[in-house]
Amino acid sequence: MSDAGEEVVVGIDPARDWRLPLAWAVDEAGRRRLRLRLVVAVPPRHDTQHVDDTPRGIALHQAASEVLGAAAAWSRDRHPEVEAVVDLVEGFPAPAIGRLSRQARMIVLGSRHLSRTSEFLSAGSLVVPVSAQAHCPVVVVGDAEHVTQQPPYLVVGIDGSESSKAALAVAFEEADLRRARLRAVSVWQPPFFLLHDEEAALQGQRRMLSETTAGWSQEYPDVVLTHEVLTGHPVEELAGAAEHALAVVVGRRGKGGYTGMRLGSVVHGLLHRAHCPVVTVPVR
Hints:
Blueprint lengths: L6 E5 L7 H14 L2 E8 L12 H24 L5 E7 L2 H8 L3 E7 L5 H6 L5 H7 L4 E4 L11 E5 L4 H17 L2 E8 L9 H16 L2 H4 L5 E7 L2 H8 L6 E4 L13 H9 L4 E4 L3
Parallel strand pairs: 1-2, 1-4, 2-3, 4-5, 6-7, 6-9, 7-8, 9-10
Antiparallel strand pairs: 5-10
Helix pairs in contact: 1-2, 3-5, 9-10
């Protein structure tokens, strides 16, 4: 295993097209000059952690090895300068890939666009558990980034929480690497009973947004930053703002999250609603 933070880890699903998330991962590894680790997890049979040496188990391992080999060759063709290593691990995919997040700079996963219920109930589900538990940012690539948009931009959701501050740090770094603009978006959702003046509430959102982003432009002078306060449902507004974005970056838990929940409702909604890659960032 490499030193911490020196790899981009991408989960390869042998049963589905892995090219879209792999393209994102190998491009990111090239930008960051990191090693790329391609991972396939082969679940044990009968809910045990023992190696499956039955004919079926051997066939599964062989098929997984072949997919890993093909994916590694594909990534080398795309970016010959990126070192790609393969890792066939025993165990259920979510915990197996989640463990790798301790040594990774970033985890990249594909998305099957399951409904929320199906995502929770699917035995092979990766997106929700890995995004909720990883120790590094997790990128879910369900749709291609919008590279034709000029100028290119990323969106980061800001609500003043420590989680959104961590997301802002990743978003600035990513925008700088890509020579892209950064749209810092705060969404105000009007309550059923507005106790204060609406303009005062919006002014408070603008102040929070300005205070949260203060100082970052000095650290990243080449990144053009814009502030936007939108009104509506956070998931819908952030997804709309990111409709033509390279990616939308959000903290794993924002304000208003329930105690014990590792994955905020806004993140959960964006994973199923956004039409660009979604980057979920834990508090470091």
